[in-house]
Structure formats: C-alpha cells, structure tokens
Amino acid sequence: MDDCVKILIVDDSITVRTTVKTILEHSGTPFKINEAENGFKALKWLCAISREDIPDVILLDRNMPHLSGDESIRILKADELWRHIPVLFLTAQSDQKELVKGLEELQADDYLPKPFDPKELLARIKILARIKKTEELLRSKNAELNQAIAAQQEAFQQLKTTKIKLAETEAFAAMSRVFEKFVPRQFLQRIAQNGVGSLDFSDVVHETLTILFSDIRSFTNLSEAMKPMEVFRFLNSYISRMLPCIERNGGFVDKFMGDAIMALFDQKNQQEQVRNSLLSAIAMQESLREYNLHRQRHSYPPIRIGIGLHVGQVMIGTLGNDTRMDSTAIGDAVNVAARLENLTKHYGCPIITSDSVISKLPPDYHPAYRKLDLVTVKGKTEAIAMYEIFESDPEPLRDKKQRMAPIYHEGIELFQQRDWSTAAMKFENCMNLLPEDVPSGLMRRRCDEYQTNPPDSDWNGAIQLTFK
Questions:
Q1: How many CB atoms lie within 10 A of CB 298?
Q2: Could you give the 3-state DSSP secondary structure of residue 118?
Q3: How far is Cα 326 from Cα 184, in angstroms, rounded to an integer?
C-alpha cells in the first residue's frame, strides 16, 4: 500500500500492544500507530483528533476495564463519523458463539482470536484498510453524484417554466435538420435567414457563383437493362461517391436530376470558387475510376460522366405555392453550365469549362488544360470559348495531351484566322500524336469543310451549334 496506514490499538495488555506494534513496524508497510489501554481512553482520543487523523483500522480487545470492547464498538458504530472505521476484534474469546456475536450483533468488521499468527494479522489489517479507502472513495463519488443530481434537479426546475418554448425550439431544430437534407443549408442562409417557417416566394437573391453540372453518359441505355430498384441502388451508389468530392471542396448540391448533379460554389472570392469547382470535378473523375474498378469486379460495365463548369450570375429563390415549393438557382449561367456538360459528349472530353472559369484561375493553381473551341450554343448569340480540363486523365494520356496542347492551340488560332489549310496540318499533327483525340478530328474535318464552303466574311471564328 502506497499511503501510510493509521492504526489504533486498544488493549489493556501492554504485552499485546507491544507485540502488535512490533509486528506492524517490522512488516515493511508504513504504519502510523496509536495506542489506548481501554475503550474510554480510545474514545477520548478519537474526540480530540482531526478528521484527517482518524484511523484506518481499530484493533479492539473485548475484555477491558472501565469501558469494554463491546461497549466501545456500540458507541463507535452509532457515531456518524466513526462508524466507517473498520474494527478488528483482537480477543481471547474464541468460541463460535462469541465470534458470531462480535460480527453479527456488535457489527465488528473482522474477528481474530488470540493467540494469532502475525502474517494473518497483517493480511487482515491490510484488507480492512483497503476496504476503508475504497468505501471512502465510493462515498466521495456518491456525494459528487448527489450534488450533480441536485444541480440537475435545480436546473430542471428553472427550465420547467420555459418547457413548452424549449420543446418547440428543439422540434424546430429537428425539422430544420431534416429540411436541410432536401434544401441546402447555403440556400436557407440566403432565403430563410429567420428559419424555414419564414420562407417567402418574394425572397430572391442575385449572386455570381460557379456552377458544376455532371451527367452519366448513355444513362438511358444503361438503366433500360435494370429493374427499377436496381436503378435506385446504382444511382445511390454512384452519388455516394460523387457527393463527398463536391462537399470536401466547399461546394453544395442544388439538386439531383436522375443521374445528373447540379452543384454550386459560393465562396466570396471567385478565384476560390473556381479552384474548388475544378478540384471537385477532377476528384469526381478520379473517384469514377475507382468506382469502375469496383463495378468491374462485380461484372458491371464501366460508366463515364461529363462535367461542365461555368461562372455567372444566378438567382436563388423558391418556386411553387403554399402547398408545394422547391428552392433552386436559375439563370443564364445555369443553362450555359448545362450546355457545356452536354458538349462533353460531342468533344469526347470528361471536363469542359468556359473562359469565365479559366480567366479566374488563381495564380498559384495550374491544372492541365487546353483551349478547345469557340462556340455559339443553341439558343445563344454570344460566343463562348471552351476549354478542356484534362488534369484528371490517366498520366500517360495527360502527358500526351500536354505535348499536343501547344500544337492544338496554334491550329485553333489559324482556324479562326481563316487559314484552314495550315490549321488542318496542325490538327493532323495532333492526331499523329494522339489518334483517339476527338477534338482534333472534329477540327480537322471542319478545316476541310470550310476550305470548300467558307463562312461569311463577318464570321467571328465561332461554331454555331444546332444541338443542346
């Protein structure tokens, strides 16, 4: 035992007291020993000491003058403070009847007849001391627990007067947490700053955001081979891999439209918006490769996705009526992002952005990209410069595109300068470096077409697309 054990020996025999004291002092365990020659002197000593000096064990003889051990233990066990001190009867009364009386009637904690074995005496003292310290710890913890319970009860009484209001608040918070699963928190912060109960159709916010559109290629053909439940399982499996790529990079999903995902990036710094949106798009393509390995292991065909990115002004608000409503972002910028995503199929590029994204690239961020084309999408009159982001391509393909990009850019410049013959040679060189490059093949064929049927003299270099 690490701490000093405090012992009180109460016996009218100086021989017994000396013997016990000698045994304890030579035991190797630190003991602090006090003696009393009868019960009266023992009780008088207990009354005079501080709480810290109360003994850990009392060794008590039963037959003593003035105040016997039996009378002493009755007084000890009746006192609120002393009753927790373990009492070991050390007595010559060894018959079973007296033993039972000492333990049961007089409530002694242990009983050791004289003469006794020194080792047994030491063992019993140590056990009683450990029990006392354990009980003291339990009483301390119980006291702390009772204080905590009392404090909680007091707090509960104070809260009772506002119980209804608190319940309403908690219910409202729970409803808001559920609501946020259907309406992004970022929307609610704009159109329902005072809570979902304050939604108003007149609340519309205009902001410049970066929009990300993604879509699974040939999803219709893919889903036709599945049962309805399989379609939902597939989409949930796919979305569960795409959503973290967006959320990790500071974006949030506006809506899921079947296999399509529309996400927004609303950081105040537009360079940060652009960086985050590109990191998300790249991460989605990388996650898709891992997902396709999983599908391959389960004998499912691989899938491909296209991603379009654009920066522009949108309107954030709610659509519907009092019985059914939906929050969304609408505007020309949303349509452009959707058109760019659709053009990934035509150009065979996983990620296409507008020049609004490239022009806002942070100076310290350099993803691999190339200028793809200048197009006028269906329904628009203003030309859009498009760029392919190929940072997420496998390394061998990315390296080839890096080497090819300067040649491709020269071809684009020559094409827009109406030097279609020289431009055709540039695109031919690109195809020699990367035969499977879809944009090079498209531009090569356009050069041939324009040499035969050139556009009007006021042509601005853009391709007029007739499909969405």
A1: 6
A2: helix
A3: 11
Task: Give the number of other Cβ atoms within 10 Å of residue 99's Cβ.
Answer: 17
Using CA atoms, how far residue 300 sits from 176, 185, 217, 224, 233, in Å, is 39, 36, 15, 14, 13
Phi/psi at 88 (nearest 5 deg)? -110, 110
Given a contact cutoff of 8 angstroms between Cβ atoms, the answer to whether 90 and 109 are in contact is: no
Of 349, 320, 316, residue with least CA distance to 330: 316
Query: What does the pLDDT read at residue 324?
Result: 63
**In angstroms, rounded to a whole number, what is the distance separating the alpha carbons of residues 371 and 373?**
6
Instruction: Report the number of secondary-structure helices (H) and strands (E) in the chain.
Output: 15, 14
pLDDT tens track for 334-361: 999 999 999 999 999 999 999 999 999 9
Residues 26, 28, 32: CA angle, nearest 5 degrees: 80
* CB-based burial, 268-281: b 16+ in 10 Å, e otherwise: eebebbbbbbbbbb
Determine if the pTM surpasses 0.90.
no
DSSP 8-state code for residue 282: H
| Count of Cβ atoms closer than 10 Å to residue 229 Cβ | 8
SS3 458: coil
Lowest average pLDDT, out of 102-116, 152-166, 202-216, 450-464, goes to 152-166
Neighbours of 344 (CB within 10 A): 23
CA angle (130 as vertex; 129, 132 as ends), nearest 5? 65
| Closest by Cα among 248, 363, 241, 380 to 310 | 380
